[in-house]
Amino acid sequence: MRKILGIVFVLLVLTGIILAQTVSPNERKEKMSKILVVYYSHSGNTREIARTLQDLTGGGIFEIQTVTPYPAEYSAIVEQVRKEKSAGFKPKIKDGFAGSQDYDIVFLGSPCWYGTIATPVEAFLSEQDFSGKTIVPFITHGGSGLGSAAQDISALQPSANVAHGKAFNRSSARSAQKEIADWLASFL
């Protein structure tokens, strides 16, 4: 039995080495240089994930900001977002986005609000054209996971390729560097 486990281990190691060599360092660097991280963060959790992604990829970064900031108090923002969602309201976004023409992959970060992306992210996507780009959602949440983020992004950007994405619990967002690096390695 020990011999069989040893053989299986060696085969797994060899498979890993072969797979690691299928993408050259230059190919990986070129792929990573065409990455843009776009995010909206209310409490700072999504910002932490976004900055780690940007540090690991060396890609560009852009923070979505609303013209009128959301309230800091939890119950006040919950009430405001509930009203916005039920009315289909999208907040005004500050200018400053230079476009995505130089990028192939866009990591799109948002807190999960009512089971989907935050209304500022909806507003931003409504104003942009990511046709032909790959959008990879990353969501921070308090227990709801990705929700319908990927489907809702697809509806707003039908000509983009929207990947499944990743959810990060808000309680571990500020210490998720290894989790982010592992996810990134599996994606790229």
Question: What is the compact description of this entry?
Answer:
Pfam families: Flavodoxin_4. With 188 residues, the chain is α/β, with parallel strands linked by helices.
Describe this structure in words.
With 188 residues, the chain is α/β, with parallel strands linked by helices. The protein has a single domain, classed as Flavodoxin domain (Rossmann fold), CATH 3.40.50.360. Helix content is 44%, strand content 18%. It has seven helices and seven strands, in the order H-H-E-H-E-H-E-E-H-E-H-E-E-H. Strands 1, 2, 3, 4, 5, 6 and 7 form a seven-stranded mixed sheet that branches. Helix 3 packs across helix 7 (177-187). The two termini are 36 Å apart. Residues 4-19 and 23-30 have low confidence and may be disordered.
Strand fraction equals 15-25%
Total helical elements: 7
The tally of domains stands at: 1
Number of strands: 7
How much helix, percentage-wise, in residues? 40-55%
- Name of the CATH superfamily: Flavodoxin domain
String of helices and strands:
HHEHEHEEHEHEEH
Helix-and-strand structural type: alpha/beta
pLDDT < 50 stretches: 4-19, 23-30
Rg, Cα atoms, Å: 19 Å
Provide mean pLDDT, rounded: 85
**CATH topology heading:** Rossmann fold
Which CATH architecture? 3-Layer(aba) Sandwich
Shape: globular
